[in-house]
Amino acid sequence: MTYTPTKTLTFADFLTQYQNNPRYELADGELIDMEPTGPHETVSGKLAIKIGIAIAQHPWFIPRNCLLRPFIDTATARRPDIIVLDEIQIVNEPYWEKEPVITLGRSIKLVVEVVSTNWETDYARKVEEYALLGIPEYWIVDYRGLGGVAFIGKPKQPTFTVCQLNGEEYSQQQYRLGQPITSSLLPNLQLCLDEILPR
After folding, report:
1. Is the pTM of this model over 0.85?
2. Is 34 exposed, middle or buried (0-12, 13-18, 19+ CB in 10 A)?
């Protein structure tokens, strides 16, 4: 058997070929197929509505299409399920006028990832990347309870994790079905995990 290494992409290559294809992310030059499903999109859509209502009084918005480039020196491009941007801060973004690419953590108020089969990335690598960028809050919505026991405990069950930045690391608070979710970023948010599950 002969091993053929996967061709790696640069960030510029990824933009040219996949910027408008919401199915793909880039991680260290490797193309990642995120394989979105209907239930995944249902959860993302319902949650985006709730967040949109909660941010209505702020100069913030949820872009329809956006890439997040966590580090300039690596070929990585994240495509969060939901991202809340600060309209005042994005004027400092080097790509924004021509392409919906965010590189500065101060432009971002909140990132949300709805967990799929690649749950390891959401619970580990993205926690580190988003904390290093200085994103104030990161939510992990594990509506099917797919995450490892080390992340969501036993018995495995649907879990909503709110990561709040304290210094350079996130403190994490987990919520289960029936529990009201609290956010220091959005104190008026009224949300339970049950409300955003697929019917």
Report:
1. yes
2. middle
